[in-house]
């Protein structure tokens, strides 16, 4: 039997799936960029523009101590500061800032969809991997948060998923550490997935763990070191201790408000329980990475999806955090959440303010939270029962042809008597 004849169709199938996903991603990217170019967007677009102007005046390090009384707290990590400095220069060349600030998230969505395809095709059928990747590319939530809102959430999520892919599927722990450092230097949210990656690296062996940590620490020192040395207190107060929006719009604080909980209890959810919830997200991802060391992407997805489930902060852009992870868990998990919460984003962005949700948006968000919880449970069950993915370069053996003739027993082997 000619092995090349048997393997060629599989190669073409994978190539065709990639072309299909890339084509859908390209169409989605064009649509998002048209949306970015033609819509003014929410207030965050103007805030980022003002931040970029301030960074041009004082630099990406001193921005954390620079007073900006008419603007929200500047809670973005150092890499975002450098990005905004670059955007200010491009804006001076005549490129609209509204398109610039949305472009990274739109491009990150393309990479995330391709990562979903590459991660899942080694663990499930190629058809399942393809439809999950397309579902990620066409998620209504990402159209709203990336193409309209203008924030860095999708970029941070993409880098963290890339780190998991590089660590396990490509066996490139040094590059994985670099990607993880870039993720938390864009936005602090993915820090909850760092323990899962460290555990997966440790389970891969001491050399992998050393290289992963070396890449992580080296890039963190380069990006965070100047700000930590120059303005440690403002950086800690504005970035590391930022608590998120305190509106009662989503999740646990929303249900507590519906149940008639006291203001002191809701305040405790915002402050006293916040660190506990973050630690739970970290522990859950680390546990899954320990019991399923080849499923680092699922462990990252668990930490990020669980973070929104337990989040006591409320902001419409936060709804993008679990989209890619749910698409990794399965088509219906990603589709159910994406459609329901996608409607929430449309309703909210159609209103006067992104922090004023009408009753329709609030009730659909409650349903979206329940779908998120169900998707997490389904994803964890699948991660625990799914067979381990083959290592890079490891070929799945071909199935032998059926034959009606019984196999001929092997002749006895003469062994010397002892």
TrEMBL record:
Q: Quote the InterPro entries the UniProt record gives.
A: RgtA/B/C-like
Query: Compositional bias of type Pro residues: which residue ranges?
Result: 408-418
**Per the record's keyword annotation, is Transmembrane included, yes or no?**
yes
Q: Which organism is it from?
A: Streptomyces pristinaespiralis (strain ATCC 25486 / DSM 40338 / CBS 914.69 / JCM 4507 / KCC S-0507 / NBRC 13074 / NRRL 2958 / 5647)
- Report TM segments: 16-35, 100-119, 126-144, 175-202, 208-231, 273-290, 296-316, 323-348
Stretches for region Disordered: 395-418
Full protein name: Glycosyltransferase RgtA/B/C/D-like domain-containing protein
Name the keywords, alphabetized. Membrane, Transmembrane, Transmembrane helix
Q: Which domain of life is it from?
A: Bacteria
Question: In this protein, which residues make up the domain named Glycosyltransferase RgtA/B/C/D-like?
Answer: 75-224
- The question of whether Magnesium is a record keyword is answered with no
One family from Pfam that matches here is PMT_2
């Amino acid at each position: 039997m000619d092995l090349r004849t048997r393997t060629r169709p599989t190669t073409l199938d994978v190539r065709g799936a990639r072309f299909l996903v890339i084509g859908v991603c390209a169409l989605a990217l064009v649509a998002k960029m048209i949306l970015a170019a033609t819509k003014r967007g929410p207030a965050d677009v103007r805030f980022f523009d003002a931040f970029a102007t301030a960074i041009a005046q004082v630099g990406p390090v001193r921005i954390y101590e620079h007073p900006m009384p008419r603007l929200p707290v500047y809670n973005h990590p150092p890499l975002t500061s450098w990005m905004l400095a670059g955007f200010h220069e491009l804006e001076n060349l005549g490129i609209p800032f509204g398109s610039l600030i949305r472009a990274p998230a739109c491009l990150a969505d393309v990479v995330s969809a391709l990562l979903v395809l590459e991660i899942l095709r080694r663990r499930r059928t190629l058809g399942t991997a393809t439809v999950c990747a397309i579902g990620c590319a066409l998620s209504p939530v990402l159209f709203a948060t990336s193409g309209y809102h203008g924030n860095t959430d999708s970029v941070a999520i993409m880098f963290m998923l890339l780190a998991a892919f590089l660590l396990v599927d490509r066996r490139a722990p040094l590059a994985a550490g670099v990607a993880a450092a870039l993720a938390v230097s864009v936005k602090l949210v993915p820090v909850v997935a760092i323990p899962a990656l460290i555990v997966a690296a440790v389970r891969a062996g001491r050399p992998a763990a050393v290289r992963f940590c070396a890449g992580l620490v080296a890039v963190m020192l380069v990006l965070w070191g100047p700000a930590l040395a120059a303005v440690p207190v403002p950086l800690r107060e504005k970035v590391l201790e930022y608590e998120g929006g305190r509106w009662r719009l989503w999740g646990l604080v929303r249900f507590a408000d519906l149940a008639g909980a006291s203001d002191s209890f809701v305040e405790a959810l915002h402050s006293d329980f916040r660190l506990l919830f973050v630690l739970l997200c970290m522990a859950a991802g680390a546990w899954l990475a320990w019991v399923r060391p080849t499923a680092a992407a699922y462990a990252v997805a668990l930490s990020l999806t669980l973070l929104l489930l337990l989040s006591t902060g409320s902001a419409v852009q936060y709804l993008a955090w679990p989209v890619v992870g749910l698409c990794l868990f399965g088509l219906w998990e990603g589709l159910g959440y994406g459609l329901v919460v996608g409607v929430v984003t449309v309703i909210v962005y159609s209103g006067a303010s992104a922090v004023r949700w009408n009753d329709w948006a609030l009730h659909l968000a409650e349903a979206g939270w329940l779908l998120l919880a169900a998707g997490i449970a389904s994803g964890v069950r699948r991660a625990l029962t799914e067979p381990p993915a083959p290592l890079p370069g490891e070929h799945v053996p071909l199935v032998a042809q059926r034959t009606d003739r019984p196999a001929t027993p092997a002749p006895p082997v003469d062994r010397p008597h002892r």
